[in-house]
Amino acid sequence: MGHTLFGVLGLFLLNILYCGHAQDALLHVETNWSPLFTGETVTFICDPRDGKDTDWSYSFRRNGYAFTTERPTKYTSPPLSKEEEYQCVAHHKITPFVTRESNKVSLNLSDVHRPNLTVSPSWTSPGGSVTLTCSVEPPSAGWRFFWYQAVPELPFTSYTYELLPGNTTGTEQDSYILHGQTHTAGYACRAGRGDPVFYTSYSRLMFVWSGDVNPAASLTVSPHRLQHFSTESLTLSCEGTSTEWRVMWANKNYIALSCSDMWKMTGSTCNTDTAAMSGVYWCESETQFSNAVNITIHSGDVILVSPVRPVTEGHSVTLGCKLRTEDVLYNVEFYKNDKLISNHTKGDLLISAVKESDEGFYKCSGSKSPQGLENVTSAASWLSVKYPEEAASSSVFPVLLVVGLISGVLLILMLLFLCRYRKSKGSHVSRSQRTNQSPATDHMINQGDTQDGHYDESSLTYSVVKFKKPKKKGKLDEPDESPVYPDVRIASAADDNVTYSQVHLRTEKKNNEGKSRCVAEEETVHSSNQEHLINKDVGVDQTAQHEQPSL
Questions:
Q1: How far is CA 326 from CA 26, 161, 295, 321, 339, in A?
Q2: pLDDT, average across residues 56-69
Q3: Where would you find the membrane-spanning parts of this chain (predicted)?
């Protein structure tokens, strides 16, 4: 009994000596940013500040209650849900009675707000660029941004989100540029950080609208104009390659609802009765978005009559001013971007050839009487102009034609230059060979040159050419001893300087082609100036008629 008591007392004293005091361990949070948001995870590190980490085991407490035991020095928490107090306890593995408690850490958590997505511009022309910008409040470090395109879910008024191409890991920049935007589409964003990644919620769905007609999905409006009186009923119809459609409406705050939520949807047609509202209308299927139409419902007495779809550049367009009562409107004036452009018309404004500069907000005003009493003004609507596709393709053709013609001419010139270069090079080589073979004499050779119809005999060179038949069965036929004297005139030669050349020729038969050629045997040519050694190929027929001496 005494020994046991002394043993326990000894361990207690050893614990005091070893630990020093109860709060020797240090607990800190491993994070790269602040504030921390509800739903994020953090890593706690417990440091006993003595010995090796492997000499200890660790337990962690939350609000005073242990929730983990026998942990290594690091602990990653589950998603944080509220403000809590954490602490760790280090247990020595060799002396179990030795423990060290850490300091207490309180985590202050914030609720991350829904990301805010903006699009610029919200209306785009075909092929234009659109910039998406995503922001998170409150501001914090470490975010990466993920960009999504909306995919309609029918028959419900909902969407799924698909990551835009090349965006699987997000972007460090809080903006994303869409190039070549063609049709109406919806987009969303969210932010994420950490490992594992903590994601914010999705932003509100934002739309980029295009008035250009998509052949696979188009919206038609009846009556066919952008402005309508509040007492009118609208009929909106969807057409295209899909079999199931829904008509969507969104106001200036981007609150989007379907026709079924507010009016009556029958098949692919929406009827608003007399309860239409101002806003943007478009059609959706599971794979397509149609052109969008920005409709204005006016409670006043006059509206602007303008086309629903963009006007092709070069075409004509007529804008009108219409009274609710169908009466005549007097002293009609038209405005573009609040500037007067036409007055005292009969109620119509004709633009005979629309150009890009004609885009803008148009409105009209007039009076109900010729005296100018009771003036009324319409709301403003945007006139959109698009570049014609056929003009774009036809404008490319002349450029390609000119480029093709220029390229062809350059190619022909290069070939002609190459041919002339090769001919001149061959002529130069021929002259060089003749000069090397006749260094002692320098003659200009012109065949068929006559003086008064007669040859100058003093300038002739006589060559004796002997032909030998090819060998047959190892035998050589006797040569024909009859000489052949071609007529050759040598210009600028001395009158008495006549050179005699004797060339013996023989014919050989090629193994593959079966053609004959004459091969000149080595002969010694005697002249008054120099002795030459001639060994070259001479054509049989040409030797007899056009031989040029190598003198």
A1: 85, 48, 21, 10, 26
A2: 82
A3: 396-418
> In whole angstroms, what is the distance from residue 332 CA to residue 377 CA?
10
Backbone φ and ψ for 540, nearest 5 degrees, come out as: -65, -50
Q: Quote the CA–CA distance of 197 and 37 in Å, as a whole number.
A: 13
Q: 282, exposed or middle or buried, with CB in 10 Å at 0-12, 13-18, 19+?
A: buried
Helix (H, G, I), strand (E, B) or coil at 430: helix
pTM comes to: 0.63
* DSSP character string of 212-272: SPBTTEEEEEESSSSEEETT---EEEEEES-S--EEEEE-TT--EEEHHHHSEEETTEEE-
Q: Say if CB 370 and CB 359 are below 8 A apart.
A: no
Average pLDDT over residues 17-41: 75
Across residues 535-548, what is the average pLDDT? Answer: 39
Q: How far is CA 95 from CA 9, 18, 55, 98, in A?
A: 14, 10, 10, 6
The backbone torsions φ and ψ at residue 427, rounded to the nearest 5 degrees and listed phi first, read: -65, -40
The residue assigned the tokens 């009609």 is 332
d(CA 307, CA 349): 13
- Scanning 20-60, the segments in alpha helix (DSSP H) are none
- 123 has which bridge partners? 209
